[in-house]
Amino acid sequence: MGGRPISPTKNISCLLDNLLKGYDQNLRPSFGGEPTTVEIDIEVRSMSRVSEMDMTYSMDCYFRQSWVDERLAFSDLDEAFTLSVAVLEKLWKPDTFIYNGKQSYVHLITTPNKFIRLYQNGRILYSSRLTINANCPMDLHDFPMDTQHCPLKLGSCE
């Protein structure tokens, strides 16, 4: 029965539809069980403005988060695949925030600078390009010969 083979895109669309049936993005993975571990990686592209007057600094970075959501595990395909940004809106995401952040934004030109990859075991890799402006309490008693340590403090509400 020779019919046309199903395209990989069609396979992925069907797989996603099945995985998202009954999926509740408001519940974290393993809700009611162990906490969800979220791994974070930041690749700093550039440090731009350091202001002694405002006691702030600014950086452009790739902010990556990875976690396992067992509800999204699959065996239908042999490899990981990239998800569209639209699918991201249907998934649970960590509520990571920057404690000492003043103002941050995701780069949206020309499209949102976000990348989402789903692996067979349900691991999600979520990357976005951010510009972060953060507070840095500075000790200026030896200015301009002083040394500053400007932390980036991350947290989560859950």
From TrEMBL:
<dbReference type="InterPro" id="IPR006201">
    <property type="entry name" value="Neur_channel"/>
</dbReference>
<feature type="domain" description="Neurotransmitter-gated ion-channel ligand-binding">
    <location>
        <begin position="15"/>
        <end position="157"/>
    </location>
</feature>
<dbReference type="GO" id="GO:0005230">
    <property type="term" value="F:extracellular ligand-gated monoatomic ion channel activity"/>
</dbReference>
<keyword id="KW-0472">Membrane</keyword>
<dbReference type="InterPro" id="IPR006202">
    <property type="entry name" value="Neur_chan_lig-bd"/>
</dbReference>
<dbReference type="GO" id="GO:0016020">
    <property type="term" value="C:membrane"/>
</dbReference>
<comment type="similarity">
    <text>Belongs to the ligand-gated ion channel (TC 1.A.9) family.</text>
</comment>
<dbReference type="InterPro" id="IPR018000">
    <property type="entry name" value="Neurotransmitter_ion_chnl_CS"/>
</dbReference>
<dbReference type="InterPro" id="IPR036734">
    <property type="entry name" value="Neur_chan_lig-bd_sf"/>
</dbReference>
<protein>
    <submittedName>
        <fullName>Gamma-aminobutyric acid receptor subunit alpha-4</fullName>
    </submittedName>
</protein>
<dbReference type="Pfam" id="PF02931">
    <property type="entry name" value="Neur_chan_LBD"/>
</dbReference>
<dbReference type="GO" id="GO:0004888">
    <property type="term" value="F:transmembrane signaling receptor activity"/>
</dbReference>
<keyword id="KW-0813">Transport</keyword>
<keyword id="KW-0407">Ion channel</keyword>
<keyword id="KW-0675">Receptor</keyword>
<keyword id="KW-0406">Ion transport</keyword>
